[in-house]
Amino acid sequence: MFNLPYIQPLFRPPSEWQSLILQVTNGCSYNQCTFCDMYTAPQKKFRAKKREDIAEELKAVAATGVSVQKVFLADGDAMTLPTRRLVEICELIRQYLPSVRRISSYCLPRNVKNKSVAELRTLAELGLTLVYVGCESGDDEVLAGINKGETFESSQAALLKLGEAGIKRSVMILNGMGGVERSHQHAIHSARLMNATQPEFLSTLVVSFPLGMARVVAGFDGRFTPLEVPHLIDEQGWLIGELALECTVFRSDHASNYLVLKGTLGKDKAALLSQIDKARAGLVPLRAEWQRGL
Ligand code: SF4
């Protein structure tokens, strides 16, 4: 939308397609998950952008006269910045783009470990009211295998802290991330993590390995068998079957998914499970490989 000096590749959640993408950091401060190659190119080495450069970019956007409503702070975990820097960025956004009504970012659980609820609440008051948390799984064996550097406990603590501060949580769980060997426990423990934290949004994506599976297989000591489509759908059924959510928007409509599911949990749980049963019986069309847009 705007011609800003991005360091490519640039990623954003699908729902941020109308947002101004403001690259306040480059890369991911962690960058060690075995399944992820988003920020492995040499130019994506992690660093924070200088305040003056961010201000220049915002000034350039303001000069276009476009009324920006939403801003997404890129790259992989802008929430790793100290609160003081995030406050500064939110204030710059308010100064140059007063029409902005929501600021969002990817967020790793570890990003909020040393931030207090009061600090997070300050950010929420400045407009940073939504974060996308790639939990990937609630199962400790899966999390260790993919080298996520997080656990059920650390993910739960971060999600609860964000919620207490009034920041909405959009959680991603990776369908198939445990392989055949850990599929059931991955689904059940991921559901329990969601039940314990009641995020406002939950989406599932099918894990894919564009650069091969070697690092993932090694992380599981050679014991990792990727799931075939019927098993991916079974896993979705176990996950949704175990979910006890009160008011969470659920989506599995990302390009990676074979079976598109949408609803609000809990009220649509029975309908979603019925869709899964129909898919198992071949009564619901699944996306073909060419339709998955990966
Ligand atoms: S934390 Fe996210 S962006 Fe960083 S390596 Fe892991 S999956 Fe990739």
UniProtKB/TrEMBL annotation:
InterPro entries registered for this protein in UniProt: Aldolase_TIM (IPR013785), BchE-like (IPR051198), Elp3/MiaA/NifB-like_rSAM (IPR006638), rSAM (IPR007197), rSAM_sf (IPR058240)
Origin: domain of life: Bacteria
SUPFAM superfamilies the record matches: Radical SAM enzymes
Sequence ranges assigned to domain Radical SAM core in this UniProt record: 12-251
Cofactor(s) needed for function: [4Fe-4S] cluster
PROSITE patterns referenced in this protein's UniProt entry, alphabetically: RADICAL_SAM (PS51918)
Gene Ontology molecular function, alphabetical: catalytic activity; iron-sulfur cluster binding; metal ion binding
Any Pfam family hit: Radical_SAM
SMART domains documented for this protein: Elp3
Keywords: Iron, Iron-sulfur, Metal-binding, S-adenosyl-L-methionine
Name of the protein in its database record: Radical SAM family protein
Native source organism of the sequence: Gallaecimonas pentaromativorans
Lineage: Bacteria, Pseudomonadati, Pseudomonadota, Gammaproteobacteria, Enterobacterales
